[in-house]
Amino acid sequence: MEAAAIPANAAHHDHHGPPEANRSSRVDPQMLGMMLFIISEIMVFGAFFTAYFFIRVVHNDPWFPINGVELPKLVAGFNTAILVSSSLTLHWAETCAKKGNRFGLKAGMLTTFLLGLTFLFVQINEYVHIGFAPHDHAEGSIFYGLTGLHGAHVAIGLTLLAIVNIRAFKGHFTPENHLGINVPGIYWHFVDVMWLVVYFTVYIL
């Protein structure tokens, strides 16, 4: 009886440090963290949209054109198609990762990164040729504020996609372990959806 108690005591003393955290949620901690981060980002965008609608409703001046300058709706529409396409290629890459298709994973992730980079380049080029600056009028300030905020999120997303691409080409992901694609993927899909809201609100309405 005493001999049986000794291994039990020894096993009890082998554990060092605090006990493991109780996971009451079935959501993976990394995924939960990303979802909470996205919720906070929605609040940030909400503050900018509040300023936008305040200007549209309260300000007496027209939204655009202003001083003969119109927003480049056609270019923005083309850029929107590019960003939406990047969500599709990302979904393809995620599906390939789950099926163990390494070529599809690498091709999809690389295409997604290049499409996102193209979107950011076109947006910067739009700023260069648009014909007004943020300090010219309130409408210009909120235009640059909203589109620039989104552009910053695209830049962050591209950084995450670059990391995923490097890991994909090194063979880090498997059908059983591809959380490193899903978590950044959630962020990139959020960036795409948010751009649709920005595009239809700022350029179309």
UniProtKB/TrEMBL annotation:
Residues 1-10 have a biased composition (Low complexity). It is found in: Cell membrane. The chain crosses the membrane at residues 32-55, 75-93, 105-122, 142-164, 185-204. Residues 32-205 form the Heme-copper oxidase subunit III family profile domain. It comes from Paraconexibacter antarcticus. This is cytochrome-c oxidase. It comes from the Bacteria. Residues 1-25 are annotated as: Disordered. SUPFAM superfamilies: Cytochrome c oxidase subunit III-like. Its EC number is 7.1.1.9. It holds the Pfam family COX3.
